[in-house]
Amino acid sequence: MQMISAGTRRPVCLLIAGFLFLLACSKEEDSGNTGACQGPTPSFASNVLPLMQTKCAVNSGCHGTGAVNSGGPLTNFTQIKAKAASIRSQVNAGLMPQGSSLSAAEKSTILCWVDGGAPNN
Q: What is the DSSP string of 32-48?
């Protein structure tokens, strides 16, 4: 068995370290999303609005019509689209909805809708 000399070890170690660094940097981050967004962007009307109504607005009482809290009302597309980046941030951080929680699928629906451009679809 042949030993690697000290002069050869250093370049080999640097090569391995460089490879591991590039491998680590090549992994795509999903910014906290619970899963990669695959397929079509979730539908606002069918997927996002019902979540907003049940988890954030109508049933929770937090973001319903006339809400004066920092998020304001979130009852229609215009209001929700205007706050899409903030909604994404709050949902991703687990700060909203207050007093409730979203399943991984619900969280992914909101995050993927915003990441897909928050369309009125």
A: T-SS---SSPPPIIIII
